[in-house]
Amino acid sequence: MSDKQGVDFIEYLDKYRTVRHCRYNDYVNILNLINENYHFNDINDKNFTGVTAKKDSRDNYYHTHSPSLWNATTTQKDKISIDTLYTIWQKNHETDISFNLLPTAMPPVVEPDKIYNVVIDAKINTVQDLINIVEKNEYYANTSYNIDLKSLHCIKEDLINLNNMIGMENLKKSILDQLLYFIQELHVGKQVSEFKHTVLCGLPGTGKTEIAKILGVMYSKIGVLKSNIFKKVTRNDLIAGYLGQTAIKTKKVIQESLGGVLFIDEAYSLASPEQSDIYSKECLDTICEALSDHKDNLMVIIAGYEEELEETFFKTNRGLESRFIWRFKMDPYNSLEMMKIFKKKVLEHEWNFEKEDDIKEKWFADKKEIFKHFGRDMELLFTYTKISHSRRIYGKDKECRKKISLDDMNEGYETFLKNRKKKTDNQFIHTLFI
């Protein structure tokens, strides 16, 4: 090896500490060069140490950038074997030449992720059972489950909202059956799928609209529906005043609902039980046709009184009945459930009670026959109670605000009765002129 090569050797080695783009052959050459110099150069030769070596007062040579025992004196060398010195030198000059740093090297072999199998106890009787499964089992992409855990995690919030709705135990079980049927894709066959259209039978104020929204959101998340479109319509949105215009108007509404849910509230109003209505028939015939044509891409939910739906909606077009295979009944609320609904509304609006223990079930039980519209009446009662509260606390300490008392509720109830009686009287007078 020449002097010039010897002088620059360690500097030549050191520069490879920062190299990150050498080819494989470059690394082979440098390793051979190191091996060759190790065997054929004098370990104490200054030329081998390099021009960056510095001689101290004891005639020892040290590399100015990386002092090491490689430059030891003869006396020191006698105490340390050459192999040991070389090992120390290697540690001081080691660099990472792993192939993952080489752009021209073959890509490392990636082992496929291991697939795990997990069996979850799936004894489901209530919506709460599904929520418990989600809360107890995390979902992992590399794990195979005996149930569709991923979909359940997607609709966890909707399941909680459904479960938190007051009462409706029979309805919740019916929805659970529908969900388990859809989530396993049992409604989908070879080149055909079943109807998803649903009837919600119940009195006003029993939460039909809220239930319909939950169904729409839930099924859009798990892929039963293609989008979270939710379009709520009534008779005025579907029926026009001229023959031929109703079909156009109805088709437009259906087209806007494709991929999601079309919710027809008070569907019994689309037809009359006493007389034939050509406009109503045109509307229902158009809907019936769409129920079949778009059954893969549309979920129609109708709501109303069960008996009136039978006498109007389904009677006008007998083909409708076979297309609404899912029928959910909304049970009336009892006095305890109405009390819970009222308290829930108060808290949701960030109000509170002065003495909550004063608000008892008996108060609602005594007035149950008056609150015929259940949830709607609780909304009205809360509004009138707030108005009474505002009059009572006027001029008082701010700490009294938004804290409802039993007196507020009693005053609000009296206002509720007055407005209800006035509305009933007006309806009676109106019928005298029909």
From TrEMBL:
Pfam families referenced in this protein's UniProt entry, alphabetically: AAA
Q: Which Gene3D superfamilies match?
A: P-loop containing nucleotide triphosphate hydrolases
What are the entry keywords? ATP-binding, Nucleotide-binding
SUPFAM superfamilies this protein is in? P-loop containing nucleoside triphosphate hydrolases
Do you know which CDD domains this protein is assigned to? AAA
Q: Where would I find the AAA+ ATPase domain in this sequence? A: 194-313
Q: Which residues cross the membrane?
A: none
Q: Can you name one GO molecular function term for this protein?
A: ATP hydrolysis activity
Q: Which family does it belong to?
A: Belongs to the CbxX/CfxQ family.
Q: What protein does this entry describe?
A: AAA+ ATPase domain-containing protein
Native organism is viral metagenome
